[in-house]
């Protein structure tokens, strides 16, 4: 054991000063002026009680309602560099969709840029959320929120295990036709809801209506993707009279928000919606 009596006073003062400075630095290291470049990031920051630190976000950041009032710096892909610089952020949280050249320019300007990777599973969503919690000094809260979400997902999965497993085609894009594979967290919606994704095993998410017709799914879900074309696309599918989904009137439209950019919390809500679509007669 170290005897403090043998340590010179000046050394003790240095140690105390060093410890206090480290603690002060740790507190100051948490960002106070954040720019969010993704809807899920923005919503996550509000859940982590850091929404008041957001000085700018994208035009697609609409959750929660307060996020609509933030300064807008562009889209998820294309951002306004001058606008961002003018907001004097001490942290920019980007996504894998953010223009890579823009990210490099921001770094060259001396701005701190952190990228949140694209989630490939619900587990990844939770990991990303906890990472955001660490960044803003709310790791414990992030862990509590994700633990609750995981418990809710486990409970929902248990309820669908014994139910019939309809085959499902989940449509994201129209021209070209885009779906979800096993490398997307959106595949978890289908599987956790007790369905079978007909496109799970393909390498790329590009698909064709001929392949859909060949698989003849029980359910077709068209994601709106923020456009008014979903109803038209539903009518197009209804012309394929040989499809089981058409015969049983099981072509559904679902809002892309928050399905495509969820937090662990909104993932649970979106999953409940998908379960309702796949098992409308089996809900308890």
What is the helical fraction, as a range of percent?
Answer: 40-55%
Say what the CATH topology of the largest domain is: Rossmann fold
- Biggest beta sheet summary: 5 strands, parallel
Number of separate domains: 2
**Percent strand:** 5-15%
Question: In the CATH hierarchy, what is the architecture of the largest domain at level 2?
Answer: 3-Layer(aba) Sandwich
What is the CATH homology-level superfamily of the largest domain? Nitrogenase molybdenum iron protein domain
| E-strand count | 9
Structural class category: alpha/beta
Pfam family, one: Peripla_BP_2
InterPro entries: ABC_Transporter_SBP (IPR050902), ABC_transptr_periplasmic_BD (IPR002491), Vit_B12_bind_prot (IPR054828)
Keywords: Signal
Protein name: Fe/B12 periplasmic-binding domain-containing protein
Brief account:
The chain is of the alpha/beta class. Helix content is 45%, strand content 12%.
How would you portray this structure in words?
This protein has helices at 9-29, 39-47, 81-86, 100-108, 122-135, 139-160, 185-192, 209-215, 230-238, 244-247, 256-259, 264-278, and strands spanning 34-36, 54-57, 71-72, 91-95, 113-116, 167-171, 196-197, 219-223, 251-254. It has 284 residues and is an alpha/beta fold. It has 2 domains: 34-116, Rossmann fold; 161-278, Rossmann fold, CATH 3.40.50. A 5-stranded parallel beta sheet has the order 3-2-1-4-5, with helices on both faces. A 4-stranded parallel beta sheet has the order 7-6-8-9, sandwiched between helices. Helix 7 (185-192) links the parallel strand 6 and strand 7 (196-197). Mean pLDDT is 89; it is low at 1-7 and 18-27.
């Amino acid at each position: 054991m170290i005897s403090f009596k043998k340590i010179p006073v000046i050394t003790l003062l240095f140690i105390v000063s060093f410890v206090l400075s480290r603690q002060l630095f740790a507190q100051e290291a948490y960002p106070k002026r954040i720019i969010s470049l993704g809807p899920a990031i923005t919503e996550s920051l509000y859940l982590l009680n850091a929404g008041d630190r957001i000085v700018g976000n994208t035009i697609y950041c609409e959750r929660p309602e307060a996020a609509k009032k933030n300064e807008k710096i562009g889209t998820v892909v294309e951002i306004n560099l001058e606008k961002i610089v003018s907001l004097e952020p001490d942290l920019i949280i980007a996504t894998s969709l953010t223009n890579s050249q823009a990210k490099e320019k921001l770094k060259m300007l001396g701005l701190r840029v952190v990228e949140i990777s694209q989630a490939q599973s619900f587990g990844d969503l939770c990991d990303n959320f906890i990472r955001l919690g660490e960044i803003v000094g709310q790791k414990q809260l992030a862990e509590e929120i994700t633990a609750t979400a995981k418990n809710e997902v486990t409970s929902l999965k248990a309820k669908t295990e014994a139910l019939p497993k309809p085959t499902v085609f989940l449509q994201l894009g129209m021209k070209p036709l885009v779906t979800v594979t096993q490398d997307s967290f959106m595949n978890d919606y289908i599987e956790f809801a007790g369905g079978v994704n007909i496109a799970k095993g393909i390498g790329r998410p590009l698909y064709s209506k001929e392949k859909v017709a060949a698989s003849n799914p029980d359910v077709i879900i068209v994601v709106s993707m923020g456009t008014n074309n979903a109803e038209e696309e539903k009518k197009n599918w209804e012309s394929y009279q040989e499809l089981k989904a058409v015969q049983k009137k099981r072509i559904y439209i679902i809002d892309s928000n928050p399905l495509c950019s969820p937090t662990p919390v909104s993932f649970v809500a979106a999953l409940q919606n998908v379960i309702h679509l796949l098992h409308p007669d089996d809900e308890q």
